[in-house]
Amino acid sequence: MKSDLYEKLKIALLSVIPPGRIRFQEPMTLHTTFQIGGPADFLVFPNSIHEVAAALDLARQHGIAVTVLGNGSNVLVLDHGIRGMVIKFGNEMGYIRHNGNGTKVIAGAGALLSDVSSYAAQHHLSGLEFAIGIPGSIGGAVFMNAGAYEGEISQVVDAVTGVCPDGSIKRFTYAEIDFGYRHSIFQDNDCTICEVELALCDGIHQDIHCKMGEYTAKRQTKQPIEMPSAGSTFKRPPGYFAGTLIEQAGLKGLQIGGAQVSLKHAGFVVNAGGATAQDVLALIKEIQHRVNDQFGVLLQPEVRIIGEA
Q1: In sequence order, what are the residues at sequence separation of 6 or more whose Cβ sits closer than 8 angstroms to the Cβ of residue 124?
Q2: Structure confidence at residue 102 as a pLDDT band (50, 70, 90)
Q3: pLDDT of residue 308 exceeding 90
């Protein structure tokens, strides 16, 4: 029975990870930027690559599915939650370090992208200015090759260390990561990103901060950062901008349940209050239908949909 299997996994997990970093039946509303989602059976906060490997090994031994999350942005967790184990990279894996006189920065997968950007600026290193307002973790950013303002994380990644499905720890070079638009090899190989090496360049402190200030101002005036969301809802269709198509279709402010097309930026679906995942899915479907009907363009979600419907 599943209950017996879960009890065995619970005991095994507690033998390798302290109880303070394991939660059971944890509401995912507390761990996603959308503030939506049912409970996770097991939520684990590892503090090292070796703990990640140990947790994955235990899940494999017990035949339990694993879901990996960073800051919980760019995801929609369904209303019945997530079965199996969720590995969440938080503060425990949020370290950032620098050798002091070079241009390489190393960050744990849980480090917030905006924090890594700020850290680089403090050390007069350029290349991550575009990332100052992206609300994800560095691991999540690599996973989906996050970008903004003509910058992408692929432009500064040198290597990534992860845990592979067979339990081995592997360092992936840039060429092996296979970056593309909102894509990396980690979407295909089931390896778990644990640490990211960034190759930045020397910059002028004032210029770096000036550019970061410009990007921050743009985000504050043009994006609904004051409301819960998963970030941009749709991928950019070739030759178009998703937000522009949605706005031209007259869908700004369209609401289903607690899910709403942002009044500030039509490319964002926001949680206007008490939204369920079903509300969001219904709104996404309606947006796709109306935009396709008017412009012949089928928008593809950028948001990852995970969990049990």
Answers
A1: 202, 203, 204, 205, 208
A2: confident
A3: no
* Strand 75-77, strand 39-44: pairing: unpaired
Q: Is 126 a catalytic residue?
A: no
Phi, psi values for residue 248, rounded to 5°? -65, -25
CB 36 within 8 A of CB 29: yes
Query: Annotated catalytic residue: which of 26, 195, 197, 302?
Result: 302
Q: What are phi and psi of 24, to 5 degrees?
A: -115, 140
The Cα–Cα gap between 50 and 25 comes to 24
Q: Which of 126, 154, 232, 262 is catalytic?
A: 232
Clarify whether 302 is annotated catalytic.
Answer: yes
Q: pLDDT band at 1, cuts 50/70/90?
A: very low
* Residue 38 backbone zone (phi > 0: left; psi -120 to 50: alpha; other: beta): beta
pTM, entire model: 0.89
Strand bridging mode 255-256 / 304-306: unpaired
What is the model's pLDDT at position 269? 98
Which of 182, 195, 219, 229 does the annotation list as catalytic?
182
